[in-house]
Design brief:
The chain has one domain: TIM Barrel (Alpha-Beta Barrel). It has 13 helices and eleven strands. The chain has a seven-stranded mixed sheet with strand order 2-1-11-10-9-8-7, sandwiched between helices. Helix 3 crosses helix 5.
């Protein structure tokens, strides 16, 4: 593989992200733009018939990575990167679950714990899924140095991991009938989460400086996406009592930078609590499937930025200009995907003209 990092001004991007984390701005708002490359490069490789192999074969994943990097234009503050991915429930699989792959973009884990009082989550490094993830991560690290960044894999911890292990309904019942057990398990799972992150970070830091993940901000230190979609089902009080301290405060204090993924209107009740967490840098606001476009959520975006937190949002290219006129640029990071290289170039030119 060639060096895809040579296609971007990585030093300038690093500077913009450092300012972003501090709620400042260098020259223009942060904008992550990807688009299909105008001149396509054909990468010949065989797609395995077996769905598990499509997710777990190191050779296949490396070929997919090369095809993606060769045929994607990274503009603005987009950094060429790739990550090993077994889906959102990978960490729960490390604790004893079994992943099922429905298609090339969807994996699932069926609950495997009957009684939360007997659940003792432990990271078994001989676990098949843990070894598979590490094989994928090692393979990418082996070819990535100086060419592209390797992203921290998705880590769902806390309520998300517990709901995957025992089932969402059982977890909600447990909050009311076995609160001490739920609190015990959330704490134990989150400690494992930090151990998993440190093991990932140890591998990646040997071949690159800094971190990137599926929320594609760059940090020169330790960073990954905080998230707990399960908590959107809860009252504000239950979120604060069971998850705020462990899921957000504890995890963010162990990182250099952090963004919490807030997904859908049901989760907005937790926003005020999140904005009060000093160690949390920012919020990623996602309106959710079937919701109105980002341009209809200015009030939510303003609330985050006015609280002194960073804000990461994604939108259609046609919304970027409107959002830049309505939102303060300090601490703002917009991601978008264009349908063509020409559209992406023109969009970046517009962003560079729209400075505060």
């Amino acid at each position: 593989m060639r060096s895809y990092l040579d296609d971007v001004d990585f030093e300038a991007i690093k500077g913009r992200f450092e300012a972003f984390w501090n709620g400042e701005i260098v020259d223009r708002p942060l904008i992550h733009i990807e688009a299909p490359r105008g001149k396509r490069v054909k990468i010949d490789y065989r797609t395995p018939e077996d769905m598990i192999e499509r997710w777990t074969s190191c050779d296949h994943i490396l070929q997919k990575a090369e095809s993606y990097l060769e045929n994607t234009v990274f503009l603005g503050d987009a950094i060429p990167w790739y990550w090993p991915n077994l889906g959102p429930n990978s960490m729960t699989a490390f604790l004893g679950g079994t992943l099922t792959f429905l298609d090339e973009s969807t994996s699932w884990l069926f609950p495997f714990v009957d009684d939360i009082s007997t659940y003792e989550p432990k990271l078994d490094e001989s676990n098949y899924w843990w070894r598979t993830m590490n094989d994928l991560l090692d393979s990418l690290c082996e070819v990535a140095k100086g060419r592209f960044l390797v992203g921290i894999p998705d880590i769902h911890y806390g309520g998300d991991s517990l709901a995957a292990a025992i089932g969402t309904t059982k977890l909600i019942r447990g909050i009311y009938h076995q609160p001490d057990e739920v609190k015990r398990l959330v704490g134990e799972i989150n400690d494992i989460c930090l151990k998993v992150f440190d093991l990932y970070y140890g591998k990646i830091s040997r071949i690159q400086a800094g971190c990137i993940t599926w929320i594609p901000a760059y940090s020169k230190g330790k960073y990954f996406a905080l998230q707990d979609d399960f908590t959107g089902f809860l009252s504000v009080r239950a979120f604060r009592d069971f998850f705020l301290e462990e899921d957000v405060v504890h995890i963010s204090k162990n990182l250099d930078n952090s963004i919490f993924h807030l997904d859908g209107p049901m989760a907005l009740g937790n926003l005020d609590s999140l904005l009060q967490v000093e160690s949390l840098n920012g919020i990623q606001w996602v309106p959710g499937a079937g919701a109105e476009p980002m341009s209809k959520w200015i009030e939510v975006c303003d609330k985050v930025l006015n609280a002194g937190k960073c804000l990461q949002i994604s939108c259609a290219p046609s919304e970027v200009r409107f959002l830049l006129t309505k939102l303060r640029h300090r601490g703002l990071f917009i991601s978008t995907y264009c349908g063509s290289e020409r559209e992406a170039i023109n969009l970046l030119k517009m962003v560079e003209r729209n400075r505060e």
